[in-house]
From TrEMBL:
Residues 192-310 form the OmpA-like domain. Its main location: membrane. It comes from Rhodobacter capsulatus (Rhodopseudomonas capsulata). Residues 1-18 form the signal peptide. One of its GO terms (cellular component) is cell outer membrane. The keyword Zinc-finger does not apply. SUPFAM superfamilies: OmpA-like (SSF103088). This is OmpA family protein. Residues 294-303 have a biased composition (Basic and acidic residues).
């Protein structure tokens, strides 16, 4: 068996990588490629590809990617993955998502992953496995596949952190007292009164579906408070998607998600139905480019738009 600290020692020469756990890879595993970024953004997949989209965790911080090749491998992808998964769990990580080939979403899921490219990291579209795990600010994405002669393992690690460099002359180089942050309700009210719209970015939907996850969302509580103090205000909830798929399909999905938000506000938070409407814009109003996974992640949202001005 080969200890991962050999790989970690090699990667230490690269700048500002995320610090991975110590893993034991099968005998014969050799690093085929590695890369590292001191500060970057990545939408780490935490759900299957369904209906031209998938759930991602938007992260910012240090990132490292390492690919291994296992020459002469006779193990299945599950046999390669299982001991690595056990070690990740033993290191204190919580499994957030795992899948196998078709259950992941097949071709679309694989090409939504940001992996070191072929030939260093080969992925058989008919036989691969994936998992994502979290330990505090540290995240892991593990992809395993194989060819007829070799096994392949790809590990992405992300450590969420402040991305502002501390340099001489930068006031952030030393800790400074921070002003007391405003409450979510104050932030939302300021945005609505100032610009007439606000994105409800903490909402979570099932991947590719319109079902709003259970639980409390600070943005919805803040919006309910805003409307309670402004009974004449009317809010249009507008769903938005990325540009994957047909416009009609995306308009329908975005409107269904907006309707789910409206229903939650009415049924759980007591907002009068007359103060809310639900609309869908599909991919017609992006707030950033759809050319990157991070951009597509930001474009999938529900916004609250002030439809009438309280007097």
């Amino acid at each position: 068996m080969r200890r991962f600290f050999c790989a970690a020692f090699f990667l230490a020469a690269l700048p500002a990588q995320a610090d991975p756990p110590s893993l034991t890879l099968p005998q014969g595993a050799a690093i085929s490629a590695a890369r590292s970024q001191a500060a970057t953004s990545y939408g780490l997949p935490i759900g299957p590809w369904r209906n031209d989209t998938m759930a991602r965790s938007g992260l910012e911080g240090a990132r490292s990617d390492t690919a291994w090749r296992l020459r002469g491998n006779q193990q299945t992808t599950l046999q390669i993955l299982a001991p690595l998964r056990d070690q990740i769990a033993a290191a204190g990580y919580i499994l957030m998502y795992q899948c196998e080939t078709d259950a992941c979403g097949g071709f679309d899921f694989r090409y939504a992953l940001d992996l070191i490219p072929e030939p260093e990291m080969h992925v058989d579209l008919g036989d691969f496995r994936y998992l994502a795990a979290q330990n505090g600010n540290d995240w892991i994405a593990l992809t395993v596949s194989r060819s007829s002669e070799s096994g392949f393992v790809h590990l992405t690690t992300m450590t969420a952190e402040d991305t502002t460099p501390a340099t001489p002359g930068n006031d952030l180089a030393a800790p400074q007292p921070s002003p007391e942050p405003e409450s979510p309700a104050a932030d939302l009210a300021k945005a609505l009164d100032g610009t007439g719209r606000v994105a409800l970015d903490d909402l979570v939907f099932a991947s590719g579906a319109s079902k709003l996850a259970e639980g409390d969302f600070a943005s919805l509580s803040a919006l309910a408070d805003y409307l309670a103090t402004r009974p004449e205000a009317r809010i249009a909830l507008v769903g938005h998607t990325d540009n994957s798929g047909a416009l009609a399909t995306n308009v329908a999905l975005s409107k269904e998600r907006a309707a789910a938000v409206r229903k939650r506000l009415i049924e759980k938070l007591g907002v009068p139905a007359g103060q809310l409407s639900a609309e869908g814009a599909g991919w017609l109003s992006p707030r950033t480019s759809n050319l990157t996974p991070e951009g597509r992640d930001k474009n999938r949202r529900v916004e609250a738009v002030l439809a009438s001005t309280p007097r």
